[in-house]
Amino acid sequence: QVHLVESGGGLVQAGGSLRLSCIASGYIPRLNTMGWYRQAPGKQRELVASITSGGNPNYANSVKGRFTISRDNAKNTVYLQMNSLKPEDTAVYYCNADVDFPKSTGWEGMDYWGEGTLVTVSS
Fold first, then answer.
1. How far apart, in Å, are the Cα atoms of 5 and each of 8, 18, 53, 102?
2. From CA 24, how far away is CA 6, in angstroms rounded?
3. CA–CA dist 91, 73 (Å, integer)
4. How far is CA 26 from CA 3, 37, 63, 106, 112, in A?
5. Which of 30, 21, 24 is nearest to 2 (CA)?
């Protein structure tokens, strides 16, 4: 079983910064793409940013230039540095990880989610 634990959420004023962290633990033969999603009240969960095991990032248009995703493969950890925060960034932020497990026929990927951390940006 793989567990993802997020930290770093909180209340911040508009224009401020927060740094989210997510640590993956458990049996992790091969950790692939990790990412951050968010869900605001009354809205669907959306991708914020993701990063491959090789370090290639991908960002939602709404956060480009303000957020930076990074990872430490030795620690199975992914980070999200959020700068110039806006009230519309208020949401529960979820960590996601794609983990490959060895099977007799090859590798099988499974998706895991953290429980989320609340980010509130006041105007």
1. 10, 17, 19, 24
2. 9
3. 27
4. 6, 21, 31, 21, 12
5. 24
Residue 17 and residue 29: Cα distance in Å, rounded? 34
Question: How far is residue 80's CA from residue 63's CA, in Å, rounded to a whole number?
Answer: 11
Residue with tokens 């590798």: 107
CA end-to-end distance (rounded Å), the chain: 40
**Closest-CA residue to 93 (of 83, 106, 82, 103):** 82
- What are 25's two structure tokens? 């633990």
- What would the pLDDT profile of 19-57 be if each residue is shown by its tens digit? 999 999 999 999 999 999 999 999 999 999 999 999 999
pLDDT, one tens digit per residue, over 63-120 is: 999 999 999 999 999 999 999 999 999 999 999 999 999 999 999 999 999 999 999 9
